[in-house]
Structure formats: C-alpha cells, structure tokens
Design goal:
By secondary structure, this protein is an alpha/beta fold. It has 2 domains: about 230 residues, Rossmann fold; about 160 residues, Rossmann fold (3-Layer(aba) Sandwich). Helices cover about 35% and strands about 20% of the residues. α2 runs parallel beside α11 and α11 packs across α12.
Length: about 425
C-alpha cells in the first residue's frame, strides 16, 4: 500500500513534515536526454467554480513538485500542463484536444464539473489515454459511458446523497423541499436524496430548479418558506451554493428549517464567511485537521495561505496515483497502468481508499460536516458523522457492469 510516508523520505522529509520549503535543488538527477512525462489537466479556473479550479491547479502543481523531489517517474521529470475550460463543456473538449494533439500529454487528470469532465472523458477514452476524472459523476463509472481508461477518484452523487440523506432523515426531519441547480449535478443529487427520503417514508414537499450562475434567490426562498419543510436540500456548487445560502439566511429561512448540501465547498464558504452556512450540514471526503490530512494541510497552508478543500485534495491524489501506478507498472502503457491501479489500496491525504476494479471508482469514507463558530481561522466545521466505502456506493451490477463466463468484468471500451 502506498502512503504519504513514501512522500516524506530522504532529503525532503524534514521540510515537508514541517511544512517548510518543498524545493530540494541539486539532489535530483534525471536521465539525460529524456523528455518530461506530461500530465494534462483541464480545470474550471474561471466561471462559477473558479475558486475550486484554482485550488485544483495549485494541488496539481504541488503533487508534481512532490513527485519530482522523489526522482520523478521512470527516472524522468514530470510536467503539469494546465488549461482553463471556463466551466464550459465545449471549451473543455477543445482544451483537452489541444493537450492531447499539440502538447502530447501522456495522461490526464482533472475536471471539476460533471459536464466538463464528461467532455474530457469523451476526448481521452477513444485515444486509450488514462484519465483521472475528478468530478462527482454517476454516469462516468456506469455502462455505457464507462471506459476502462477512466478512473473516478471523487465520490458520486449517489454516495453523497446516501450519506447526507440518511443523516438528515434520522436526525433532522423527514419533510423535505429541494433547491437544485438545473444541470446534471443538481438532478443527480436530487435523485439520490429523494430515493433516501422515499426509503425513510418521508414527505417530498416540492422542488425548485435554478439556472447555473443565479445571483438572486429571493423568488425561490418565498416558495421554500411557504412549503414549511423541516429540511431543505440545496444541491448546487461554487458561487451558486454561496448565493443560495446567503439568500436563505437574509430571509430568515435558516432559522425555520435545517439546510443540507451534498457537498460543502469550504474554499467558497471561507471567501464570504462561514456565517452564511451556520446551522447547516454538508458532505466532505476528508477533514483538513484530521490526523491523516493535517500533514498536507500544513504544507498547503504554508504555500498558499489557507487549507485546501475536497476538489484540491482529490486532484492531488489523482496526480500522485497516476505517477505511483506508472512507477509500479514500470511503463506508460495504458493497459499496464490500469492493471497497477485496479484493486490498489492507497492513502495520501485521506483515509485508506481502494480502486474498485469493476468500475474504477475510488471507494472512500464520506463525512457529514456540521458548522460551528470558529475559535481560530478556518476552524469552521466539525465532523458529526462518517460512513465508509462499499456501504454507500452502488454495486457494480447496479451500474450495468457484467462478468463473462470466466468471472472477469467485461470491458466495453
């Protein structure tokens, strides 16, 4: 099993453990004449989720820095080539094509929105290029979209909805209203949460869908308050998440109901102040002050001035896992790298995770975070529940995966 200890060795160990300088000039010697191994990343660094995209770019560069301090991959230096998809699927496809055809990247990692990640996947899969598809998606691990060349390190909307939904139904109430972003992410979250509500024999009071990039939520708040829910599920991301929560607080809705989100995005929340989400609950795949993550938090805060959120942490792990797999495979051959990844257990910045062989989903813990008034900077959340692994992910058969006569998973692409 690969752990963060493989990062914290030799010349850079003391510096990394103390959150100090990451550079170790003069210690690395790469094979003469070898070109760098290139990892491409298309990220939404402008647009609705720009803060998350910037965070992911930072973590891409940080992972490459750590890898190169350890001698690179196959004795060659690693280079990150990052492009902005602006949160647009068509732009993302164009940028991905440029990275593949002009920059000649060897592998890809990125995407922080479902639709841009799907566009990225549609460029890499036909090229038989390994992709770490780093955005919440149910479809990308399911047949027919699934490709053996694509791995999914983020949680799915199904797993987030299952964990946060169960907590809400057990602890907060069973009369729910839904406010969702009107695109794939929002509707997939709605399906997951509403399924939990149905199983809990709760009451669905209605749904309001809003366009991405909505600034004024006042018209939605009126409908929500008129329904008098015990729980409001807010399924959106980035600026939409913050604007929605701010609107709810301004009109007093957060005092009349509990508000939950499939995923908290701390970077966005910290940008406007945690008071916007006080009293609410949201999902997370790690906690920045937990023992397994604190080493990374210390390094990241030293370099960038604040902790990383889920998007950045996941992107760091994407790059580390790609490079670790190539070194284990001793090859850039996609088939050999896939074999090195499938079933592999790893632990970088979160708890232990496993690449499920059937659908290439990273099986991992999901936390429920509650909010609190901070005693120190960024001390704004606390873990109130945690659910792990296979308990929350759909079985591969439910994602339409099948085995052949010999018991091997059938690969459709």
């Amino acid at each position: 099993m690969i752990t963060r200890r493989t990062v914290l060795k030799t010349g850079g160990a003391a510096a990394l453990a103390a959150g100090g300088s990451l550079g170790v000039p003069g210690l690395l010697r790469y094979a003469r004449g070898e070109t760098p191994i290139k990892i491409g990343a298309t990220l939404s660094m402008t647009g609705n989720t720009a803060l998350a995209g910037e965070e992911m770019a930072n973590c891409t560069k940080l992972a490459v820095e750590h890898i190169n301090e350890k001698g690179g991959v196959l004795g060659r230096k690693v280079e990150a080539v990052i492009r902005d998809d602006a949160g647009n699927a068509a732009t993302g496809a164009t940028r991905a094509k440029e990275l593949i055809e002009k920059e000649k990247v060897d592998m890809m990692a990125g995407g922080n929105l479902g639709h841009t990640t799907h566009a990225l996947h549609q460029q890499t899969a036909p090229k038989k290029m390994i992709l770490m598809a780093n955005a919440m998606s149910n479809e990308i691990t399911s047949v027919p979209m699934f490709s053996k060349y694509t791995f999914h390190p983020d949680i799915t909307m199904q797993s987030a909805g299952s964990v946060i939904g169960r907590y809400a139904a057990d602890k907060l109430g069973r009369r729910w209203y839904f406010l969702v972003a009107d695109y794939a992410f929002g509707w997939a979250c709605y399906n997951a949460f509403s399924s939990v509500l149905k199983q809990a024999k709760g009451e669905n009071l209605g749904i309001s869908a809003h366009p991405i990039g909505t600034a004024d939520f006042s018209t939605y708040v009126g409908k929500i308050m008129a329904a008098q829910p015990e729980v409001l599920v807010v399924a959106n991301a980035g600026k939409d998440q913050i604007n929605a929560w701010k609107g709810l607080r301004e009109f007093g809705a957060t005092e009349k109901m509990k508000v939950v989100a499939p995923l908290f995005q701390p970077t966005s929340i910290w940008a406007v102040g945690v008071e916007s989400v006080w009293g609410g609950y949201g999902g997370a795949t790690f906690y920045w002050e937990a023992p397994e993550t604190k080493w990374f938090t210390d390094v990241y805060v030293k370099k960038f001035g604040k902790p990383s959120g889920d998007d950045g942490i996941s992107q760091y792990e994407c790059v580390m896992e790609l490079c670790s797999a190539v070194n284990r495979a001793k090859s850039l051959s996609a088939d050999k790298v896939i074999k090195a990844l499938e079933g592999h257990k790893f632990k970088w910045c979160k708890g232990e995770e496993t690449w499920r062989a059937c659908d290439h989903q990273a099986i991992q813990d999901v936390y429920v975070l509650g909010t609190k008034k901070p005693e120190k900077v960024y001390d704004t959340f606390e873990i109130v529940a945690k659910t792990g692994g296979e308990e929350i992910e759909m079985a591969c058969e439910e994602r339409n995966h099948k085995k052949d006569a010999k018991g091997n998973w059938i690969r459709y692409q």
